[in-house]
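Researcher: We plan to redesign the surface later, but first we want a full-length starting point. Tokens attached.
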């Protein structure tokens, strides 16, 4: 069942499990007893690598016994003894899964990754053993077929529908031979996704650009230079400067480094990850993965994998996805061509006799933006002190919802660099714990995300608050200075904080209704981005880290006017990745020996993508889709942006971006109900109408 096991990413957790004290005394395994920490968070400092496997094995054993008890119950199937019992099973397994997969993302090592590979087939088999248990399915089906006589409320009805649907989509209606094949495919897909992600991390960590000539640092901001010196020193290369493929290093290098040859080197390193014909090469992994996914879809009665996946999404089918992507692609590409003309003009202005390439775009775009708007991003950074930006997000949440965030001391942390906050509602009641983990390290996967070490639930009739974690990879602070964010990083913080609010506000009684469709899940995060650079909000948190001066109105005005510049590039590279994801998963035949890089080149080339703009994620490091999670779903960000742009209009139409009535409706209909209602029903409940693409195109400057 999808709500019982999450084999990748951050799993959900039920909270306290029923381990016996005798077992704990024998093993010293903290998973086998209740967490006695503040707020019941995991005791991270007590958990050792050797604790995970026994807890996983015992967790699977316990849930297997629970499933057998449900399936073999001699009593007539009821909602409580079958559906609720199933939903609540697997407490220990959820508990250890939440911590293991969370820590594997933020503090991994070779031993942990090896254990992940060892556990993957066991978890896949365990999941299939539940999905393909005929006696269990028969009882669920009996309740499902009798639901008209059960007087269930809306949440209970949704839980029953979801569990029944999960069984069907999990293969319960297949014959024995097909079920056996499905087990093989599920195990293969799980292992391939895991291998893909581990290869990306290894490739990202393997590349080093070492500079020993100070002249080669020309153009780079002092903070970036200082961080590169610190990185080199930590790597045993004191006196040199080390740049990596982690975004806080590679992106500003491409943006500011005057040395074109070095820009080319790091750019090629970045876009070649997983495509270096070495032990970490992902091309064959991708070919096998999309083949296995297609085979699974056909086994389940679908013509392609996208059809299988999208049935559960707001989009419903590939036609609706392509309709949206194509509607935006044309104006985005047109705008990108305008930006390319500006970039080539800057090259000529400097006396260059060459056409811009991929490693030139960010560098000359920065010059073009400065020429047009007299704005350099480095003018903004001093006003975006990390702690202040974080507090700015807290301010927005307080203005909208009345909630507060208080630092927690003496609490276990998922990593020593993490921060912890207690969140309280406007009436002072406890909502949950929120962790932040801001900076990159080799043990952390790239990107930014929000997850939970314990999902919101109910225990003995009382709401149990979630333990939420927000993870980023922001620029490290230079020695003696605070961390200063770029405008993009500030927006990322607000984005992930929106996910955090979604988790903190959720109020459901069953795990099976806690989730929302993938193409809806980005609405709460993306709508929060709108407040990041609102003048009223900037005046609260954007203060110079040295003088305390509030960001000048003139700078806010420049930021506002330049905000839409660059959306041609940003939208095109994003849409390219979305189209690439979809094109892989609408394939109805996978040619033997498929060259995935040739496929990528052809599928984007036929749409006229500029050679200077590679897909945001190229095939061999496209972890969103090949690692699972956003498979046939990377379009979700732009789909949700249609929603979030329209949603923010609801505030603007009132003349008050903090309008309390609109905020209350957004919380009530979007943030609180989990997946109890259909996603579009939730949106219409909030907005009173379905959204259109107009606000999105306007916000991106494409209209």
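Model: Full-length starting sequence:
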């Amino acid at each position: 069942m999808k709500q019982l096991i999450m084999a990748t990413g951050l799993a959900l957790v039920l909270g306290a499990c029923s381990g016996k004290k005798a077992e704990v005394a024998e093993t010293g395994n903290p998973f086998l007893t209740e967490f006695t920490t503040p707020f019941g968070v995991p005791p991270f400092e007590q958990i050792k690598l050797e604790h995970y496997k026994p807890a996983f094995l015992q967790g699977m054993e316990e849930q297997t016994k629970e499933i057998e008890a449900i399936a073999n119950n001699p009593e007539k199937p009821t909602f409580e003894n079958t559906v609720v019992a199933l939903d609540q099973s697997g407490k220990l397994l959820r508990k250890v899964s939440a911590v293991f997969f969370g820590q594997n993302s933020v503090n991994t090592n070779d031993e942990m990754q090896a254990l992940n590979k060892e556990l993957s087939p066991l978890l896949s088999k365990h999941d299939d053993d539940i999905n393909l248990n005929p006696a269990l399915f028969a009882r669920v089906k009996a309740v499902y077929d009798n639901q008209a006589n059960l007087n269930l409320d809306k949440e209970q009805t949704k839980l029953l529908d979801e569990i029944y649907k999960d069984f069907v989509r999990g293969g319960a209606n297949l014959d024995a031979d097909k079920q056996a094949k499905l087990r093989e495919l599920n195990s293969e897909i799980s292992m391939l996704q895991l291998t893909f992600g581990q290869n990306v991390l290894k490739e990202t960590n393997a590349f080093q650009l070492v500079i020993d000539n100070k002249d080669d640092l020309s153009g780079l901001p002092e903070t970036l230079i200082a961080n590169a010196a610190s990185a080199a020193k930590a790597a045993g290369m004191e006196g040199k400067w080390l740049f990596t493929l982690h975004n806080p290093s590679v992106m500003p290098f491409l943006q500011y480094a005057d040395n074109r040859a070095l820009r080319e080197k790091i750019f090629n390193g970045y876009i070649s990850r997983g495509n270096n014909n070495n032990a970490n090469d992902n091309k064959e992994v991708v070919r096998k993965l999309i083949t296995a996914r297609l085979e699974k879809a056909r086994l389940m009665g679908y013509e392609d994998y996208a059809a299988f996946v999208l049935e559960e999404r707001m989009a419903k089918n590939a036609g609706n996805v392509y309709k949206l992507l194509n509607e935006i692609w044309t104006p985005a590409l047109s705008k990108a061509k305008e930006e390319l003309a500006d970039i080539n003009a800057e090259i000529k202005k400097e006396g260059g006799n060459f056409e811009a390439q991929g490693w030139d775009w960010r560098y000359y775009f920065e010059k073009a933006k400065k020429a047009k708007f007299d704005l350099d991003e480095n003018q903004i950074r001093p006003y975006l002190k990390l702690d202040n930006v974080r507090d700015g997000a807290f301010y927005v949440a307080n203005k909208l919802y009345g909630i507060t965030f208080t630092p927690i001391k003496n609490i276990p942390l998922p990593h020593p660099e993490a921060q912890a906050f207690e969140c309280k509602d406007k009436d002072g009641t406890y909502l949950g714990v929120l962790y932040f983990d801001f900076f990159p390290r080799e043990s952390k996967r790239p990107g930014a995300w929000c997850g939970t070490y314990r999902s919101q639930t109910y225990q003995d009739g009382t709401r149990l608050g979630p333990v939420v974690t927000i993870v980023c990879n922001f620029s490290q602070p230079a020695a003696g200075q605070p961390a200063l964010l770029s405008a993009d990083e500030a927006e990322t913080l607000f984005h992930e904080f929106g996910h955090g609010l979604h988790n903190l506000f959720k109020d459901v009684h069953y795990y099976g209704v806690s989730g929302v469709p993938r193409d809806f899940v980005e609405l709460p995060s993306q709508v929060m981005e709108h407040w990041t650079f609102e003048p009223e909000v900037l005046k609260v948190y954007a203060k110079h880290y040295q003088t305390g001066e509030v960001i000048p109105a003139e700078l806010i005005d420049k930021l506002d006017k330049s905000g839409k510049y660059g959306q041609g590039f940003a939208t095109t590279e994003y849409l390219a990745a979305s189209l690439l994801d979809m094109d892989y998963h609408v394939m109805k035949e996978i040619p033997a020996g498929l060259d995935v890089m040739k496929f990528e080149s052809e599928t984007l080339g036929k749409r006229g993508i500029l050679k200077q703009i590679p897909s945001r994620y190229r095939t061999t490091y496209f972890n969103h889709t090949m690692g699972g999670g956003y498979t046939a779903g990377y379009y979700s960000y732009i789909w949700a942006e249609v929603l979030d742009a329209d949603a923010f209009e609801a505030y603007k139409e009132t003349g008050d971006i903090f309008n309390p009535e609109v905020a209350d409706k957004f919380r009530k209909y979007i943030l609180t109900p989990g997946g109890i209602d259909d996603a579009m029903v939730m949106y219409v409940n909030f907005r009173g109408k379905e959204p259109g693409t107009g606000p999105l195109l306007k916000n991106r400057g494409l209209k």
